[in-house]
## 1
Amino acid sequence: MAPVSLERFVKQLAQLKQEMDEGKLQSSEYDQRLARAIRELRERDGAGVQVMGSPSLATQLVEHDLVDEYRLMVEPILLGGGKRLFPSDGRARPLELVSVTTAGTGVLICAYRPVRG
């Protein structure tokens, strides 16, 4: 199987979204096809992929064990709400702390890697 290009990956995502919006695709099939596309993208050489601003995509990547590193920012404020980032399947996913940086504003920027068994 030839590695997928980033351009092809973006087209695949757009096609999957369109098929979901049109009701042509069940959510379980969407999840499977998305995970397959991400695995193909990971097989290619080049820079890593970052997900910013898409909690639903990030959740799917976590569910399919496709995250190599988490970079989480802890803000010094409690809001009591927000969009869910992690799956609610109850499965423990151990992480190893790689680094912590404190910004001048008090924000903690934490890097974690999954502990693979």
## 2
Amino acid sequence: MYVANFAQYYDVHATLVVTKAEEARAKKAYKLLCNAGLSSVLDAIHLIEDGIATNLPALVAADFQRAIELFGPPVEYISGTTTKKAIMITCF
């Protein structure tokens, strides 16, 4: 009979502690990132900070950064940056 040794798993520490309100704002920010079709997270932050997008919930840059920390980068952003680019050969 095998007895597992879980001694290495006793010290579990939370690396990111957020409140429910912060998590809700991060979900809204992540939803905006996924649905807006922006090229990067910085574009979404500039969209909010420059006042281009109006009538949005009270989102700030920290909400977008927290969304990336909690949920990871959007799949749409990753799939656009990891595709193989065609090589152009120019003749002189």
## 3
Amino acid sequence: MADTSGIKAGRAYIELGVGDKLTSGLKHAQARLKAFGVGVRNVGLGVAGLGMSIASPMVTAAKSFAHLRDVAPHLTPPKFMLIALPIEEHALLLNLRRRLDQFAFASRPG
């Protein structure tokens, strides 16, 4: 009878070759999944940074508003009073303001 040990050794070589292809494919898939995970992580970090850049001024505004609410009762009333003017006097005051603005702009150096 023929010796079958050579056939078994050949079979092991074929199984080893298939195993190497499977291992290679799995390693390739692992690398692709890892790259995908890194990409998703980077997108998440970018969105988080954008959220922080939006939220930071809002928090500052809320703190300022809360501080103003605490301080407002202790503020003194304004030292001026609004006066209702007839239309004619209002037009005169606007004209005077325009002339003063022109004078201030003309007297500026440069």
## 4
Amino acid sequence: MAHTGFEILRSAGHGKMDYVDKSAVMKAFRAFTLIELLVVIAIIDILAALLLSALVGGKEKTKRAACKNSVRQFAIACHLHAHDHEARGSAQS
């Protein structure tokens, strides 16, 4: 029997060698299909988009907090200035 190279030898465990179809072995080590790879990439893309939107939301909250603090500090400064200068009157000549 001539072998075409599409078969591989397999030991039967008793010293006897059998020929096995290579396609049967390759099914056991099946690679990912294009559809499976695209699905995985799409899932990773969705997760990355969710993460980025959460990070952008965090940046926006940080900017708001900094702005709120600046307004608060300005209000305190105005209040202290008014308190320090209330004895002199509002208009100076």
